[in-house]
Structures are given as structure tokens and as C-alpha cells.
Amino acid sequence: MPHVVTQACCGDASCVYACPVNCIHPTPDEPDFGIAEMLYIDPSTCVDCGACVSACPVGAIVPGHRLDEKAARFVDANAAHYGYTQRDAVRFPVQQDWRLPLAPIDKPKAVRGGPAVIDIAIVGSGPSAMYAADELLKQPRVRVTVYERLNLPFGLSRFGVAPDHTSTRLVMDLFDEVARHPNITILLNTEVGRDVTLDELRAKHTAVLWAGGAPTDRPLPVPGVDLRGVQSATSIVGWYNGHPDFVDAGPDLSTERVVVIGNGNVALDVARILTADVDALADTSISRDALASLRESKVREVVVAARRGPEHAAFTLPELIGLADGSARVWVDPADLVGASVDGVDDPTIAAKISLLQEISQRERPAEPFIRLTFGQTPVAIEGSDSATGVRFAHEGSESVLETGLVLTAIGYRGVPVPGLPFDDATGTIANVDGRVTDTPGVYVTGWIKRGPSGFIGTNKTDSGQTVANLLADIEAASPGR
Ligand SMILES: Cc1cc2nc3c(=O)[nH]c(=O)nc-3n(C[C@H](O)[C@H](O)[C@H](O)COP(=O)(O)OP(=O)(O)OC[C@H]3O[C@@H](n4cnc5c(N)ncnc54)[C@H](O)[C@@H]3O)c2cc1C
Ligand code: SF4
Ligand code: SF4
């Protein structure tokens, strides 16, 4: 039985390059790569060679013979991407007439121009920075200095990814390996703009690559958001992951109901952590303070409220499968799915999400504390005089108030301007063309501050590859004679 990509896939496409028969898609060259919710193995062409398993940094690929019942939905998801239905996938025989080709090792093209030592500053040490460093360090003449404002490296792969997503967090092992390269120096507790200026970096280094991420939340534009008891999901995520900026952001968990506004993967992360079995969380990297607060929590229900219907759910299919089949207790009120149907839905991922939500809605309401996913609820105001007492939602022409003492906004992230660099206010990014900062020679961008806050950890690999290729090409073009 063919290999299957499962929940932990963070889209770095390492498996694509490892696969000898090109059966993993979308590849970075294909148009839907940037928007795909995961990568998928074509069961009809996979030859079960296992090359992708060793290439995957987060253990997301499972050989067919090791799949358990829980992974069955991923068998379907992989197969459905290629137009096969249900469990057709298990029937594909492994092809016998293949052999693993000798690995085509692409030796990176050496940079021919520029100074004897190409000295690059990278601002930030998140995934985009580390993938960029990895790419740059393939050039023996390159030295990299990473400037990171926090006391620990690797950005959101450490301070964003949920502590119970242990496989995804394994990507930090890869970044550790990059950090051990002799030609890289990582300066922690060093904020560019506070401890050193951008102009100083530009004067000192051959080029500067800004990889500072998109650190702020998109604000919820309704009255009452400033009340006590309304917090951003960012602050909660930072709090449970031990982010130094959010040590004091612990929420008041004396309320029985929490309302999370927005239903992307971050909303699901937060809901999962607030309803998780605390003893199971104790074995993860969760902050000890957060763990102690969760032990005292009175929360019985976390409502994840989405403005639009299930066909527009922002969470990805792998995350929903993880929620439905994992240890989380999740529920959907059948009344919330009235009118939802897979009829006429062409996209297999959307269809799979709708059917799984329908399946969940047929289950018994789980024991408390549990997560309730709701749809079609537009928040119009946070109620309360001093602290939040409820959220007023509009739903099909009428309004109602859902009582709660804690409201978490999770409607997306946004980049902030960097003094001295052009900012595109519409997208919340540093203005750039393919990573070259507009009208600012020698300065480049990558990651969320380049393309906006979308995609997975691995999406930053191809993104950084593009920026680094342009950066090196500019160095060559500036003094090609060397
Ligand atoms: C809550 C959350 C959970 C997520 N979970 C997953 C997941 O499970 N799987 C997945 O694939 N993707 C996940 N993602 C997405 C993933 O984390 C991002 O794609 C990725 O981190 C973006 O990388 P980046 O390098 O652009 O930014 P970041 O990871 O934000 O890194 C930016 C770095 O720059 C530093 N910095 C900023 N300004 C300065 C300055 N002036 N000087 C010095 N340093 C500076 C910051 O401290 C930070 O370390 C999650 C995102 C969030 C927000
Ligand atoms: S097992 Fe081999 S053939 Fe199948 S997807 Fe992985 S690399 Fe490709
Ligand atoms: S994480 Fe990377 S290597 Fe692993 S399955 Fe996803 S794209 Fe492939």
C-alpha cells in the first residue's frame, strides 16, 4: 500500500525532491503550491521506496503498512486529491518495475562576483530566516550573522506552534543543524532598531535580509474590544509557549465559556490547549506557568465562532482531522450545519471538511470541557461595562448574545512597518518584488513580512530560496568579474 502524507505536513517540499517518481504534489513549481493545505502522494504512482520518509523533517509521511485506523482519513485525503474516491488508494499495487535512480545531487552554482567574503545580515531567526541561512551557507564564501531580538531562536516554530504538535516542533532540529554551521553566528537578545540600527547593518554587511515576521494581530473592528477579558490569540499562544513578551498575558480562566472569534488553525490550537487533558500537556514544552493555570481552569466550553459557513472554514483539513480523531473533545451542533452540503462542491478538500463536520455533528455531545465549532456568526459587539460579559452575534438577520467572560480574537496576523523601509499598507508587508525591497538596494525580505501571514513553516523554504537566489544574482551582477 502506498505511502501517505499526514497531519504534521508543513509544506517544505523536501519530499518532492526526494521522490524518484514525482508522485508528490503540488510541487513548488505548480500554481496551487502556495495555497495547498498539505502535500499529497498519488497512490497510483507511489512505488513505496521510502525516500520521502527520510527527507521529511517532521515525520509526516507514513508507509502504508504502518497506517492505523486513525490515519484512514489521510488515505482518503491523499487519494481524493488525485480524483480517486474513498479507499481506492489501498487497492493500488506497488509497482515492481522501478529502481531508485542515483540521486541527482544539485551542486549549487558558485557565486562568481562580489567581495571575497560575502557577509550577510539576517534580521530574525524564524523559519524564513533559517531556510534562507541554509540556502546561503551552501556558498563557501558566505558568512551569515543572524540578529534575533528574543532570548531563544526560531521564531514561531518555537513560540507559535502549539506545544501538543510535537512532530511539527521537530522542525527546530533542522534549524539547530543550520545553526551549527561554522559560518553562521546567531546574536540573541539583539533587536534591530533598538540595539543596532538598520543603517549600521547596511554599512557593515554586504546585504541585509529582513525576516522579522508579521507579529501583530489583525484587530477585530467591533465595539467593546478594549474591555477586560478580551485578548488576542497571539497573547495566549505566546503565554502558553513561554514567549518572553507574554509572560504576564495569562487569561482569566475562571469563566465557564470562552469564545474564540475566527476559525483558522490558530483558533483551533488555542481551543485545543484550553480544553486539553492537563496531564498530557505536562509532557510537552508548554510553559509551566500556563500549565499551572490550566490545572485551575473552570472552562467547560470553548466556542470557536466563524463568520462564514463550513464551506469557507479557514482551518485546514489535516487540523480538523487531528481534532476529530485525536484526544480533543469536539462538537458541532447539527443546527449549525443546516443547509451545508457536499453536493456540487468540486474541491475534494472542502467536501472532506463538510462531511467530517457533518459526521462530528452526529456524535454525542462530548464530556466537558469541549470545543464547539459554530458557523455563520458575525460578531457585532463585545458586551459588558468594565469586563466582557458576552459577544453579540448577528446570524441570518437576527442578533443574539453568547455569554462569556473571555473572548479571544484570532482573525489573522499583520506585519508592522520597519523604519527606513517602504511599507505596503494594503498587504501589511515590506514593499518588495520577489524579495528585493523596493528602491532599497542591498536590502531583501523573506517570510511573512515579504508575502503576508499565510502558508506553513515549510512554505518559507521556497520563499527564502527565491529571495536568496535574487540576492546572490545581484551580488554577481554588481561585480561580475571576480
Ligand atoms: C500561533 C501560530 C501557530 C502556527 N502553527 C504552525 C504549525 O503548526 N505548522 C506550520 O507549518 N506552521 C505554523 N504556523 C505558521 C509558521 O509559524 C509561519 O509560517 C512561520 O513562522 C513564519 O516565519 P517567519 O520567519 O516569517 O516569521 P517568525 O516565525 O515570526 O520569525 C520572525 C523572527 O524575527 C524576530 N524579529 C522580529 N523583529 C526583529 C527585530 N527588529 N530584530 C531582531 N529580530 C526580530 C522575531 O523575534 C522572530 O524570532 C503557525 C503560526 C502561528 C502564528
Ligand atoms: S515512498 Fe517513494 S515513491 Fe512513494 S511518495 Fe515516497 S518517495 Fe515517492
Ligand atoms: S513536511 Fe515537507 S517533507 Fe514532510 S510531507 Fe510535508 S512537504 Fe513533504
From TrEMBL:
InterPro entries attached to this UniProt entry: 4Fe4S_Fe-S-bd, 4Fe4S_Fe_S_CS, FAD/NAD-bd_sf, FAD/NAD-binding_dom, Ferredox_Rdtase
E.C. number(s) listed in UniProt: 1.18.1.2
Any coiled-coil regions, as ranges: none
Pfam family name, one: Pyr_redox_2
Keyword Iron: yes
Required cofactor(s): FAD
Domain of life from the UniProt record: Bacteria
GO molecular function: ferredoxin-NADP+ reductase activity; iron-sulfur cluster binding; metal ion binding
The UniProt record lists the keyword Flavoprotein: yes
Keyword terms: FAD, Flavoprotein, Iron, Iron-sulfur, Metal-binding, NADP, Oxidoreductase
Catalyzed reactions: 2 reduced [2Fe-2S]-[ferredoxin] + NADP(+) + H(+) = 2 oxidized [2Fe-2S]-[ferredoxin] + NADPH
4Fe-4S ferredoxin-type domain span: 1-29, 37-66
Protein name, as recorded: ferredoxin--NADP(+) reductase
Biological source species: Gordonia spumicola
